[in-house]
Design a protein that fits this description.
mainly alpha
Length: 76
């Protein structure tokens, strides 16, 4: 998965429930217990604000982190 501005904009157009569900799904696929995230309307708004303020450098860094994570997960 490669995050770019277009994908980020699509995420921001999701309603809170859709975005919450996607976050839970990504967490579960990454081996994180979705219940441990404590997703609620308040922190969904914080996530939305953080995503909305992401710069191109932030997006590039997120892609690097995700690629490293996937590589480390495969090598286990």
């Amino acid at each position: 998965m490669e995050l770019d501005r277009k994908m980020l904009d699509r995420l921001l157009r999701m309603n809170d429930e859709q975005l919450s569900q996607l976050i839970r799904q990504i967490a579960a696929e990454g081996g994180i217990d979705p219940a441990s995230l404590g997703i609620n309307p308040e922190n969904v708004q914080s996530i939305r604000a953080a995503l909305g303020g992401a710069t191109e450098e932030d997006i590039a860094r997120l892609n690097e982190i995700y690629a490293d994570y996937r590589q480390n997960r495969r090598s286990r």
